[in-house]
């Protein structure tokens, strides 16, 4: 139904998402307002929370995998690195993901669980609000050392609520990370940064 082939090609039919990658929009604008970042972040958190409830961790959160539909809503793409049957307390060990977004527990070759996705949200939201990655070096060995050892620094331009949210998501210990407990996404949704979000309306795209 959703694929066909020619003499020398196998073709997949996919949904048309005409808003482009979030990467394109942030590259053009350099930084998003906190209001815009809050909206995108909330939609991403809602989507990941749903996946986690279904026992799925995503593991490849990055700007290039986030698309905008015609109404400006987030769509998560590329589920190639997803892992199924991961609930609270369950772990996996595969080293995978995009270097700049890898959580410390993945780099340490530890068993890891769904909190890796919340680290990814922290990196994404830092990018959106601060205009750069929280940890970056062209040399991946240096980059990984920074992720493991360096404390994240915040620009003065962001509010205290934004700083507190990012600091919570970028805690290196997954057990202490915001969202790392049994309540998962719910712990993030009640953070003061998201106090203006009506989660039911958001879910219904109102």
UniProtKB/TrEMBL annotation:
Its EC number is 2.7.11.1. Residues 1-194 form the Protein kinase domain. Keywords: ATP-binding, Kinase, Nucleotide-binding, Phosphoprotein, Serine/threonine-protein kinase, Transferase. The keyword Ribosomal protein does not apply. It comes from the Eukaryota. GO terms for molecular function: ATP binding; protein serine/threonine kinase activity. Pfam families: Pkinase (PF00069). InterPro entries: Kinase-like_dom_sf, Prot_kinase_dom, Ser/Thr_kinase_AS. PANTHER family: RIBOSOMAL PROTEIN S6 KINASE (PTHR24351). Belongs to the protein kinase superfamily. AGC Ser/Thr protein kinase family. RAC subfamily. This is non-specific serine/threonine protein kinase.
